[in-house]
Design goal:
- This protein has a domain at 2-91: Antirestriction protein ArdA, domain 1 (Ubiquitin-like (UB roll), Roll), CATH 3.10.20.
- Strands 2-1-3 form a three-stranded antiparallel sheet.
- It is elongated.
- Helix 4 packs parallel to helix 6 (112-120) and helix 5 (94-106) packs across helix 6 (112-120).
- It contains seven helices and three strands.
- By secondary structure, it is α+β, with helices and mostly antiparallel strands.
- Helix content is 44%, strand content 15%.
- The termini are far apart.
- The longest helix has 13 residues, at 79-91.
């Protein structure tokens, strides 16, 4: 189901956008990379890494040199984990996303597993009581 729902490359309204570079080529003085809009299918990530970033047996490492996201990202984030987070963000309302961002910022949460945990539990973290 995931593969079918997110089969089109470069969604029109990305939840997370990252500029991914080939770290080996970068260390050699050459910038090889491109922007990737998430979420996409895992197959599309694999193809992107081979064709746009040039990962292969000789060049195996990547780095995120720029990003557009409501959450702080590290240079060495796992793209597949970021993709899972992007899927979750796509399922959330704008108010839920805003609460998750505020909660993560207020508590200094920056690693993807913590951010994902907050997104998964956003309704439990902020229970509204009326009356």
């Amino acid at each position: 189901m995931f593969e079918q729902k997110f089969s089109k490359q470069q969604t029109n309204n990305p939840q997370i956008r990252v500029y991914v570079t080939n770290l080996g080529r970068y260390n050699e003085g050459k910038l090889v990379g491109d922007w990737l809009n998430l979420p996409v299918s895992n197959n599309e990530i694999d193809t992107f890494l081979k064709t746009k970033v040039g990962l292969n047996k000789h060049y195996e490492e990547l780095a995120i040199h720029d990003y557009e996201s409501d959450f702080a990202l590290c240079e060495y984030e796992n793209l597949y984990d970021l993709n899972v987070l992007a899927v979750k963000l796509e399922q959330m309302s704008e108010s839920e996303k805003a609460l998750a961002v505020a909660y993560c910022n207020a508590n200094g949460l920056k690693d993807i597993s913590s951010v994902m945990n907050v997104c998964e539990q956003i309704n439990d973290l902020f229970v509204c009581r009326v009356g």
